[in-house]
Task: structure prediction
Amino acid sequence: DLAEWYRTNSFLYDLTDDSYKDIGKKRALLDEKAKEISGELEQPITRQHLETWLKSMRSTWGRLSLKKSGSAAKKFTTKEEWLLSTFGFLKKHIHRRPQNKKMTSGKVVLS
Result:
């Protein structure tokens, strides 16, 4: 499972890992995994495909983790529930940026 592989290779997402800034190591590992997946699917998968997918999963998890699931809120889809539970290990690695708020004619505007 690709999500489990990502979790076990924490230097891909963990800023505190000593290898986090080792671009060569990251590229080599992603190239190797892309080659492995390509063989299983019998279609070409590149490192860029993996990087895009992983970045998308991380971003989507971050966005979904801010939402509340409940009777008043929109229910999560099956895929969203899967993503939230599968990539939950990212919680301690995602740092939220504070949003700047300005008042404009009595309305709050996020900038």
